[in-house]
User: Which sequence fits this backbone?
């Protein structure tokens, strides 16, 4: 049994060793471009509620929060709290305002995520794409029409108390059309970069898969991350990604190797970078203060 496991491990590692450094480097680059775009989006939303913070502090907060998300259960349970405390400490932004900005980011993010989900459904569904498009537009329209109710529900789900004034600010964001369009475009770009990153990793192994297939696999990977309850989705995301790749005919050894590299970029390396930021930028003190409250 142990000999069989050791043989399989050697086989997978030998395949990983054949990966192109050029494509792997580009995959890393797309990941950190995404982080910067997240920082720009957060800065724009904060400006929308009348606050501002240096972009470099927002990026550092996001990097540190990635580490916390990767080591706490249910994905975002620790990272978002750290982001709130970080901007409160570094930019003197009240916790309620930072919470509102983060929740608003998540609300805007549902639009590209919903679009990706519909793309995945269209790939497998026998329904006409127009039907799925109508359903998607109806869902987005309902959120927009019932905006105040949706915001209130989101605040309850995040267990975030806000004052009446803070609530007025977040609901008023709906009318800032330029902000919303730019933020949605940034969110969409980030998710597209996730697809590009997966494409680059497959290219690192000389595997030139169709963009539509890469998109569907990326959507499946996103969904596994959303439902994962382990720290950083460990075990669930890896198993899901390997299973999805093999379902589409990728040999098991190659599917495991692709998954190992993808998780090295998005989990292992990101955790190490986030930990380094946490240790060198005063994040430990912020986290201790947060835990003591």
Assistant:
């Amino acid at each position: 049994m142990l000999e069989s496991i050791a043989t399989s491990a050697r086989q997978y590692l030998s395949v990983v060793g054949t990966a192109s450094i050029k494509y792997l480097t580009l995959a890393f680059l797309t990941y950190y471009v995404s982080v910067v775009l997240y920082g720009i989006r957060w800065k724009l939303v904060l400006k929308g509620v009348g606050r501002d913070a240096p972009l470099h502090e927002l990026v550092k907060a996001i990097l540190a929060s990635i580490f916390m998300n990767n080591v706490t259960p249910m994905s975002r349970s620790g990272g978002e709290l750290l982001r709130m405390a970080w901007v409160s400490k570094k930019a003197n932004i009240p916790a309620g305002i930072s919470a509102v900005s983060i929740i608003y980011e998540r609300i805007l993010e549902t639009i590209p995520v919903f679009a990706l989900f519909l793309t995945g459904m269209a790939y497998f569904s026998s329904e006409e794409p127009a039907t799925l498009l109508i359903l998607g537009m109806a869902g987005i329209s309902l959120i927009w029409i019932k905006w105040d109710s949706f915001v209130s529900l989101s605040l309850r789900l995040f267990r975030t108390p806000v004052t009446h004034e803070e609530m007025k600010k977040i609901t008023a964001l709906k009318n800032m059309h330029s902000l919303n369009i730019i933020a949605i475009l940034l969110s969409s770009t980030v998710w597209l970069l996730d697809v590009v990153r997966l494409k680059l990793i497959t290219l690192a192994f000389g595997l030139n898969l169709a963009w539509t297939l890469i998109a569907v696999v990326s959507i499946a990977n996103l969904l596994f991350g959303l439902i994962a309850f382990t720290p950083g989705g460990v075990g669930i995301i890896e198993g899901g990604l390997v299973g999805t790749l093999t379902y589409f005919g990728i040999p098991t050894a190659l599917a495991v190797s692709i998954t190992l590299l993808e998780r090295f970029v998005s989990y292992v390396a990101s955790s190490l970078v986030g930990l380094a930021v946490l240790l060198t930028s005063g994040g430990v003190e912020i986290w201790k203060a947060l835990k003591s409250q």
Remarks:
- The longest helix spans residues 95-124.
- The chain has one domain: 2-292.
- Confidence is low (pLDDT under 50) at residues 1-9.
